[in-house]
Amino acid sequence: MRLIFLGPPGAGKGTQAKLLTERYGIPQLSTGDMLRAAVAQATEVGKRAKAVMDAGQLVSDEIVNEIVSDRIDAPDCAKGFILDGYPRTVPQAKALDRMLESKGLKLDAVIELKVDEAALVRRMENRVAETIAAGGTVRSDDNPEAFKRRLTEYREKTAPLSEYYAGTGQLKAVDGMADVDTVTAEIEKILA
Ligand code: AP5
User: Fold this and answer.
1) Label partner for 67 (CA 20 to 30 A): which of 82, 87, 89, 138?
2) What atom in ligand 1 is closest to the CA of residue 126?
3) Residue 155 annotated to the active site
C-alpha cells in the first residue's frame, strides 16, 4: 500500500501515519522527521535546511525529492509506505509521479485531513505544553511566528495539491476535526 497524507501543519498527519504503520506493517516516511534528523546530525543537507525550517518556510524541492527517492529504495519500503509531509508543492507532486513511474510503482490513495486553522494553532500549543511537561525539547518551528509562516506556506504552496490529486481521481478527504480514533476509523474505511 502506498499512501500520501496531505494536510496543514498540526492536522494529524504524523499521528495517523504512525497508527497505520503498525496496522499495515509499512514505514512512515516523514520528510519533516528526516530533515530534523539531518539538522541534528549537522549533515550538509541539515546545515542547508536548518534556518529555512526554523523560519517555517519550505526546504527546496530538489533536497526533499532526492531524500524521498533514496528512502523509497530502502528494503523496508518494498511492501509500501506512507508519505507524511511530502509532496508539499505541485513540482514535488510531479517529481513524485516521475519517481514512482521510473521505479514501476503506483499510489493507492491520497488522504487529506481537513482541520480549521484555529484548531491547528491550539494543537501546536498543546504539543508544546505536552513536550515541556514531559521534559522534551520543543520543535524549533513550534512557536507562534514560525507556525504562522507554516500556515501561509501551506495555503500558498501545498493547498493547490488538493486540486492536483482531485484531478488524478486519487484524493479522499477526511474530517480531521474529529478525535484521533474517529479519524483513524474513517481512514480505514477508505482503505478497506
Ligand atoms: P513537518 O514535520 O512535516 O511538519 P508539519 O507539516 O508542519 O506538520 P506537523 O508535524 O506539525 O503536524 P502533523 O500534521 O503531522 O500533526 P501531528 O500528528 O504531529 O515539516 C516541518 C518542516 O520541515 C516544514 O515547515 C519544512 O520546513 C520542512 N519540510 C518537511 N517536508 C517538506 C517538504 N516536502 N518540502 C519542503 N519542506 C519540507 O499532530 C499535531 C498535534 O495535534 C499533536 O500534538 C497530536 O497529538 C495532536 N492531534 C493529532 N490528531 C488530533 C486529533 N484528531 N484531535 C486532537 N489532537 C490531535
Assistant:
1) 138
2) 44
3) no
